[in-house]
């Protein structure tokens, strides 16, 4: 955190000054470790073993916060009898070895089918489940026809029933003993126990523990399950929805949170509404039936979606045409970025917009990325600097090796300069869901324009070109609401008008104040329901800047947090079942008996006047179906899920699988790696075999404080480049001895993809680990470099292959294997032969560009 | 400048006549030093902004003079950052005033070996044509089972996560209307 | 170094913390810690040969001016003429080198903004300026034959200032944080003064007739002898800080200087009366003087670049201070040598 | 105060404690309080925001003389700036300190401890200033009769970071030796170079006991931290202190900073961080105390700081005396040369 989010880290340091214990669990000793109370080094990719070990410790030692667990979680609910745990084998029931996918029907609770609040939805259309399982990667299969029946599952509030979630969980993690954790992770038993004691002693009524993670948890083939494991632990310890608790994702880009909220992601519509999959005879209602829960706040998905459709297609969206629901294109599988690149290489897709993104450096398997771009008809790059992704046809690594020739690359490239953050107004959504409005300070120079300008005018041009078209496929374009007011000589669209559209309007054209005002009858509009309220009262709430010193510590008047300006989600859980704070120290939101409403430091994430004693009547739906203790209001049953009967593609409980490229066998289960992971098996994406002697070392990629991701915003700046001027690898003295690496000399790193060179930093901060009988070396690789800019070097990401998490299709880039040798890498075609010789030795099929 | 003034500005004279005989402070201060003031004081306006690097969302104050950014500093009002910035955030002035920044359209024709210049409007028009062409070529009305797809796979987009919400919104909206499902983002990476 | 017994430390821990030149270390290795062996203070950015030559010329001019005035008084016309020209040439040449040494030479006159007794360079400027004026005026009367009486007066004035010009440069060097210079602040004035005597005397030997050159020879011999002696004492007193004189270019320069001084002094002693040997001796003495300045300059650069020169003496100082606090004696807080 | 008084040291103008250096430099009684930096390295995370913020504000050029020199790794941990200089007014040092296991509890550090106590002194590495390669391996401890290395996982590491800056000494060598008055003491008690005056004589460079100030090749002027003199007048804090994410760099009135530092030191000692110590805090030290002082977690020299700096001008009166006497001696010798032993 100190490395990549230094200013956020001030609060950690402040907590530390007030007596908090800071524990840093990281394979590397970083600048965070340097000021932590305890640094726990361990093997990259072993996080679930570690977290599972902590869960096991909590359960076997009875350290869970029992009142919290019984009040707010599904611990007491019984899992269906069909469920079979992963156990020694490491595979849950429902796995289909042929398709490599799970059918989650056997994971269901006893007597109830619950819709997930996120993740793998659209499971519920009976006649389509087999088709789904066969060829949609998004859907892990369907379940039975009782899908819509909201019913309470069987439960045992004593938590003793062998099939209750608590016991299932306990059994699942029983094998994750401290000794097992020590063996798998390479950390000492005492070290593990120190962490276990620290977090359990620091959780409960009086104290809370927070977990903070970044892409070190998400860049794995089991990434989603890493986060699940942490959420199970935090829920058991009662650390969710409470001040000083939570699982905090430190996101790495100014508005990457916003990019998921208003997603430029293929599988989502704004506000986490799933994109519709292709089905026979699907209409709006059947989509909602399949994707939306009937209870909890997702029960209003109809209002959110209809308002969205109204925002996009205005008067053309009518009850008669299902509010233009058919205008939305349909998914049939994985169209994530790596699949797109595969299709580019296969010449199935022809054009590509790169908008402030530099995949030639920043994405796993750079060769694959560049090869994709070289096979396009046209490429539009919008950036401030001449990044590698714009100039790959000229100076990419494949030009040097002769794999590609400039004269043979047919890609037409448009480089359009873009405006920077001072040259346009708009909102970023930061890592804590806070929208902050930036005001334009200066006009962009030359041809530089904002993305708002570019896409607005591109849309206008396209609509002009199609004007008068009678082709049905052009209706969505021609009916689109696309008339934003513009200003200035460049006709810049007014970003406030866009934000206002996102916020939404009622039938009279008034700004909506809350998503609870949204209706499914077409009388309201709103582009992203979770952002509704950001333009409450016609005021740009994201532009509020009451100084921090002039308001409470929660600072509700700085910017605007979704939803409804709540700063901590599910904060109803900061009070006990009766609505009283768990402790004075940790009071945050509580039930005020006198006024008959929830109150506190934050805006309650709960219906304001629903008393703790409220119990839903039979047949209640949406929020009415949630009781006064159901704090997790987006969940269909209002409970935090210790066991996830649905929503995940790779199991209801996190299970330790080795990274695909691992130097060791899975010591906890027979199954070596995630059986449901996604591969791209192509010559340009060869994988190192597990436990390969040819590629014996683990490497991990990361950022440095002094640079920013793929370097487009840092490698071109002198003040930053001089601080970290060259690409380097970090190795332990032991590895340096083993491979004759010289400090400040060059090393060549080799994987089945390619070989790259880096300067060597020999440092005691890298530690070899003992895993079983093996000594495992880990190599650190900051990934910021490319061929352009002031500070140059080989891209570390070129070393990586692409293999993905099945839930979110994110690549495993935080751990892989390689070899390392002293000296510089071969140049030109010799590099290809060098890499091929390694593949031969490792028994990997021939690779490269074929 | 009269002799008196000149003499009065001569540090030796001030050494001899003033309170700084050793010539270490007040006596040797130059007129230019005396007139020194922070360049932020000359700013025409101070614009509230947010750091464009990571997602902590530190507040920034942008100092502008004559339509140019002269300084970017942390916004002390921000309850998130309290006026502080990391090295990248502190380099924001360099970022926005970078001399290597490309500010005109560059065009590489198919099989070309060099960049060419292109008018922005022409570029936009060419891109619109290419979008429509790729959309047509990649169009799918239904799949082989007759399921309605109503989409195109002809082109795709990959956005960085430093885009504004409003920008992402327009991208998503336009692509959905085009039937283009392949919209992706750094958030996937 | 109070928290560990060096004897218990592995050999490799006891590095000098320095990259090169280990082979020439003649002093016992001292244990010290440093930041990657990097220098702690900054070495002078003064230019070479500008500054050593300025020092040499200043010394030559200063002593020559006295010789000239005395020669005028005692009726030694060739020595007078040589001294006057030497003083003027030294002053003008020195000024040129001093200005050239500046990284912003056009601002030379900024030196005249202030008079700072804390700055040897400021004081030196205020010495050099009048001296150069007097010496140049004197030399002008000498050459042209005009205003001889005025020339005699300015000659005396120059002679009054001259010795200061010759010795202030010692303060210039020793009033720095460069250990080998600073800790020699008792020796350097004598070294530079005697070196100036050798240079001025040598100049007189070269350019005056054998009839007039005896005072020059005496001054030069005395200067050379004193210089050799004080150099010896300085290096002894400097202790480990003298190691910079025992290696690298400074070692070569100082050895050459000694050779020249000894040869020149001997030559002056026995060969003063022959024009050619007097001239040769004079040249040797001047060379010796110049080489000393170059040697001291180089030694200072090497000292500044050696973190051991900062850390070891300062640690020792701290140790002695602590020891004296414990035993209630006066702390020897300045010198460690 | 007369020139004579001042120079003779009677007014503590050259060394020793000096409560008000601004007044000593002729500023009137209404001058502002002395300001400074307290850099608490125990909370430094080595982010280098200070380096960048300083350069952005002061428009300091990239460091190094040419491009090949500029963007080169030094191999000194994450420090690629090397040291303070004309174009580096804040410099963050990184020290990777290794000690064998057992000098502290495994991996356990008391709360508030950035590192373990009780260290085996050593150089972090030996990087020659000329940029050659460094043999880090040679510095690793040997154990055992057969030269077996201590297993890597049985050594502990701590990583010290510290943002160095001009000390703005009470008795500033650079200021005292400056012959033009370019360097001067401001009304805030700080030491600043006036670039319009400096003629690049370079005297300040070797006169700084900390190796702070240097002459920049590109413009020939001497440069160093100004403590953002231009900002102070407007009531703004210096750019580095403002940016510092963890408040490792604290700016304020010197007396308040000293009190804060004393409290912090006591707190750390109370937590068992025995190796914490203040550096430059003591008005009785060789420079009369620093305007910018530090809390360090190891010996100063480990951070590249002199352990016991003394301002060179402390000895100046004696030097002048010696030089004057020698000058008299030289004059006398030259005169004597004309009389000794009569004329032959």
Structural notes for this entry:
The complex is a heterotetramer of chains A (850), B (189), C (337) and D (344). Chain A is of the alpha/beta class. Among the domains of chain A are: 1-40, no CATH class; 678-842, Barwin-like endoglucanases, CATH 2.40.40. Helices cover 24% and strands 12% of the residues of chain A. In chain A, the strands form 11 sheets. Chain A has a 6-stranded mixed β-sheet with strand order 21-23-22-28-20-26. In chain A, strands 9-10-11 form a 3-stranded parallel β-sheet, with no helix packed on it. The radius of gyration of chain A is 27 Å and the shape is globular. The two termini of chain A are 41 Å apart. Helices cover 31% and strands 22% of the residues of chain B. Chain B has helices at residues 3-9, 11-17, 31-34, 87-90, 92-96, 120-137, 165-178; strands spanning 45-50, 59-65, 68-74, 106-108, 116-117, 139-142, 148-152, 155-159, 183-185. In chain B, strand 8, helix 7 (165-178) and strand 9 form a beta-alpha-beta unit. Chain C has 337 residues and is mostly helical. Chain C has one domain (50-305): Up-down Bundle (Formate dehydrogenase/DMSO reductase fold), CATH 1.20.1630. Chain C is 67% helix and 0% strand. Chains in contact: A-B, A-D, B-C, B-D, C-D. The interface between A and B is large, with 162 and 115 residues. Strand 9 of chain A pairs parallel with strand 8 (155-159) of chain B, so a sheet runs across the interface.
- Name the pair of protein chains with the most residues at their interface, and give those residue counts: A-B, 162 and 115 residues
The beta-strand count of chain D equals 10
> Termini distance of chain D?
55 Å
Placed side by side, the strands forming the largest sheet of chain D appear as: 8-1-10-9
Spatial sequence of strands, sheet with the most strands of chain B: 1-2-3
Would you identify the regions of chain D where 5 or more consecutive residues have pLDDT less than 50? 102-150
Overall domain count of chain B:
3
CATH fold category name of the largest domain in chain D: Alpha-Beta Plaits
Backbone CA Rg of chain B: 29 Å
Q: Uncertain segments of chain B of ≥5 residues (pLDDT<50)?
A: none
How many strand segments of chain B?
9
Just give the CATH class of the largest domain in chain D: Alpha Beta
Number of helices of chain B: 7
Number of domains of chain D: 2
Mean of pLDDT of chain B: 95
Based on CA atoms alone, the radius of gyration of chain D comes out at 23 Å
Q: Based on Cα principal axes, name the global outline of chain D.
A: globular
